[in-house]
Amino acid sequence: MRSGISKIVPLEAALSAVEDGMSLTAGGFAHSHQPMAMTRALIRRGVRRLTLMGVAECWVAEFLAAAGAVEKAYFSNFMFEGFGRCRRFVEGVETGRIATEDHSHFGMICRLQAAGLGLPFMPLRAMTATDIVEVAGFEDITQKSRFIASPFGNGRVTAVSPLKPDVAIIHAARADAAGNVQLFGATSVIEEQARAASTVIVSVEEIVEADVIPRQPELTILPALLVDAVVHLPFGAHPTGVFGYYEHDAAYLGEYYAASRRQDSTDAFFRRWIHDQADHWSYLDALLVSRLLALRVDPALGTIMTGQRHV
Amino acid sequence: MSEISRDEFMAVAAAREFRDGDVAFIGTGLPMVAAYLAKATHAPRVKLVFESGIIDAAPRELASGVGDYRLAYGSPKIAGMSYALSLLQGGRIDIGFLGTAEIDRFGNLNSTVIGPYRQPRVRLPGSGGANDIASMAGRFVVICRLDRRHFVEKLSYLTTPGFLSGPRAREAAALPGSGPSRVITDLAVLGFDPETKMMRVEELYPGVTLEQVHERSGFALGVADDIAEALAPTDRQLHLLRHVIDPDGRYVVAANV
Amino acid sequence: MSTRDYSLAELLTVCVARELEDGGQGFIGLGTGGRAFIMAVGVPSVAAELARRYRGIDFITQYGCTFEPDLKKTPSNFADPYLLAWPSKAQVRVEECLEYFRRGRMTVGFTSGAQIDARGNLNTVCIGPHEKPKVRLVGPIAQSDHCTYAKYTYVLMTQDRRTFVPKLDFRSALGHGDAPGDRKRLGVAGGGPRKVFTDLAIWEFDDDGFMRVESLHPAVTMEAVTASVGFPVRFAEQLVETPAPNPEELRLIRNEIDPDGLFLEARIA
Amino acid sequence: MTQPTKVRSLAEAVRLISDGDVVAFGGHTARRHPMAAVREIVRQGKRRLHVAGWNNGIDMDLLIGGGCVATVETSYIGIGSLGLARNYRRAAEAGAIRIIEHSETTAMDRFRAASMGLPLLPTKTGLGTDLPRYNPHLKPFTDPFTGETWLAVEAIRPDVAIIHAHTADEKGNVQLDPQRWHDNSPDAMIARSAKTVIVTVEQIVSEDAVMARPIDTILPRSDVTCVAEAPYGAHPCCCDARYDYDMEHLRRYYEATATVEGFADWLAEFVTGLEDHLAYLDKIGARSLMGISMKRTVRP
């Protein structure tokens, strides 16, 4: 029988799970499906001293770093495709405010996998013999990885230790009230992040009736058993995009990137778009609905329909 | 329009690195253009895997990156980053392409920091998939401008393994891939001496001298015995680059008319 | 009346259920709320299901374009987006759904009106002269179609001197016309109104096409009916009390067909 | 030959309407009426229109209140479950508009006959009623085969038809989503009856998108004069599976129309005081529009 318990909660209630000093991982990559509305809400609330356990959630990392909310970062790559470095994040590192622990993408994924699978370590064939495993960041280098021989005598691998985030924040396409979550398009590292994290908070574009999910169960990226709370946040990934709904807002990203040259202009940007907005709805209204609707994708192309090219 | 730009030479040189039937791991930029050029010409059976988890897409227009939804068009399989990287570790990827901030004579790369690791002078984006590709792809190609800022005697940080310290070092580290096969620059195409694993000049673009190449490297480059002038792009390749694959010159800028 | 253990809606439901014919098809319009909803939608819906279960007849109900919906999955809101998702046997194109009338397939049209006259003609257009009415109403909707083509029409409405009038301000639907044989003369295929179910009585039509009281609801007097109607009232020779629901009918209605009162207590928005 | 684009701005499209035109509207009850176009008609101050439909609501009530209408031809005008349409009622009770009465099928037959290229269609609906007295397009005639009396429903040939659909490509091929209610085919009849056909759509899409499901094309481009993109263009009416009614807004409208002054204020706030449809959407705001949205993804 269907469970009568709903996991749909208001944004602030869901984010009460994120406390100062906790470790956080976030979904998304490049300019796609990053949980930006939740990130803005955390910044508005003044979250502090976070440890990121990140893979490719560049915008989340940059915004949190710009807000002075990041203390440490385990990660593999934060950069803005088509723009360049995440300026506030790198400045935090270059001034010593943010301590880092580098990985390759797969190395980071393996550490999350180890946690998610309940294993003491995960072997991989990358990172070996490089400074990633030789040069210590804030972590005891011997506790990060070891080059080990297989007990079966069939080779040597790098073993990495588990990383278990306190909270994963994820933005997806749709969910039902029970907390089954679906996503279209590329899934970044969401499955590993959700399995690893102690608490999983998901924001979605749409809440759907319970009978929608079982029609295409293969689209379900997170079953309800992995999800602690669901927040309904249409355009909740803005200014990044959500596959099947809307593209990233290139103009907005460009505006941020220009502002991020300096901390004071970044602060002004945040004042306008985060601190001066009472909630997600006022943020969307400040952007204007018409601007958001212009980001809608075409059903066949999957992107904003621009002039069609026939080659 | 018939004058050929350095970008076009680089694109064509990169395209040549594909063998028909290769499964290639592709990132943003010039490698994307080279991959589509190869597929449209000598290597139609090349299959592409993108870091974002998109497999073998057939985009109608050039994507602005591996996260661009344009890249998903026509893809028969869209998964996640973990899936794409698992294919790499599983030995399914024949060739990868990498850019870099620094490269040394053994083809090791740095995309992490300039200066010390803690509180660096310049914090770079980090390895991302670069280390994974260099460690685990069958072979990899580096695309990089040839100058002393990029070609350095010693890396600030070894993010991504080339031949590490030289012969047999990759074997000692149990890295499954065979390492860098080519370095494509704006002046010349470089390769590696099979014995010493040190970088050497193999092809020069028309009008480029060996002296110019040596002058712009921060370390001593070897020279291949059979050094040759790089093959000029064919008319068909130029047509594809300029009118079909990258008509807006996003990654491959045509020469000024 | 106070000692009755059933509601007016239940009483009417049972009476309508007894009328329906095996193999029939009935059209139930949507789009009213409150009390009018109970009369126009609630009673016919539950009656049809009761007739199926209690009498074992086969009867197709058609809610606009929706054929034979699953009453167990009735939406709590009849706004279109919810109707869209109502599991049913068919959703036909909207202009086709009315062609079941024109092809003569519709056995019963359930209808209502702002005014009815002694010959069962109906008005849903205006009160007062059409050129400058006192009250402009919604318009004929599909009522003229019901009354033209359906084999029978059952009218369900509240009875008072405003609604039961000697002369309509506008005749938007043909009942039995102005004189006996009018429908036949006009070549109108349907049989016209057969019964009128109100809060006080059930009316039938005599051979001349005049409305007459067939039964009075419990505790309703002939005087009360006469006083509530704007035309001379005829009573059937064997005037009876409207037969009460039996316990089994009530059990089916309350426990199985409409346990949440969606239909007979108008709990559908 | 290149195929011409039929995309126009909503304002350009509505400028195709002249004062005094017969204008037919798609949609029914409180569902998928071309409300963005209706508001633009009021904004442009069109006058003396003969508006025709088969089952209408806030679309015609707003046009009547906006002073655009001389004649109304339909079977029904009401504001959903809220009640009577008050601008309509006021105008009718003041004798300020002419009303041509229809039952649903006769209203549809007007369009159906024209869309079939016929001068009339026969019907029994309306015989023995007052409808023919108040509708010059219903006239009795004798069936030449049987001698029976029928009513002839005269074909209508509107100057302009306006319907709202889900999508169209730039060439004017108009589609509805696969998930829809009864496909609302009278809209296609209404369009095919008219001399000029304006289609507003939720989204202009690629030709790829149209060609992926040709069975959902309700009007091929030869039936269409122009298409204008109007997301949430039926608001506050519902639009099949995409969005629900905006009951809050409908209620506000209903209450505003209780008085002439109230409606004037409403009109200034939501129609005449706003530059265009996008400004209207910005005013309605994200919370309302996202709140009524039922399916925003382009994926199945």
Secondary structure blueprint with pairings:
The complex is a heterotetramer of chains A (311), B (257), C (269) and D (300).
Chain A: H1 11-15, E1 23-26, H2 36-45, E2 50-53, H3 58-66, E3 70-75, E4 79-80, E5 84-85, H4 87-94, E6 99-102, H5 105-117, E7 122-124, H6 131-134, H7 141-144, E8 145-149, E9 156-160, E10 167-175, E11 181-182, H8 190-196, E12 199-207, E13 220-222, E14 229-232, H9 250-259, H10 263-275, H11 280-287, H12 289-293
Parallel strand pairs in A: 1-2, 1-10, 2-3, 3-6, 10-12, 12-14
Antiparallel strand pairs in A: 4-5, 7-9, 8-9, 10-11, 11-13
Chain B: H1 6-16, E1 23-26, H2 30-40, E2 47-50, E3 54-55, E4 77-78, H3 81-89, E5 95-98, E6 102-103, E7 109-110, E8 113-114, E9 122-123, H4 130-136, E10 139-143, H5 169-172, E11 180-184, E12 188-192, E13 199-204, H6 210-215, E14 222-229, H7 235-245
Parallel strand pairs in B: 1-2, 1-5, 5-10, 10-11, 13-14
Antiparallel strand pairs in B: 3-4, 6-7, 8-9, 11-12, 12-13
Helix pairs in contact in B: 1-2, 2-7
Chain D: H1 10-14, E1 22-25, H2 35-43, E2 49-52, H3 58-65, E3 69-74, E4 78-79, E5 83-84, H4 86-93, E6 98-101, H5 104-115, E7 120-123, E8 138-142, E9 149-154, E10 160-169, E11 174-175, H6 186-193, E12 196-205, H7 207-211, E13 217-219, E14 226-229, H8 247-256, H9 260-272, H10 277-284, H11 286-292
Parallel strand pairs in D: 1-2, 1-10, 2-3, 3-6, 10-12, 12-14
Antiparallel strand pairs in D: 4-5, 7-9, 8-9, 10-11, 11-13
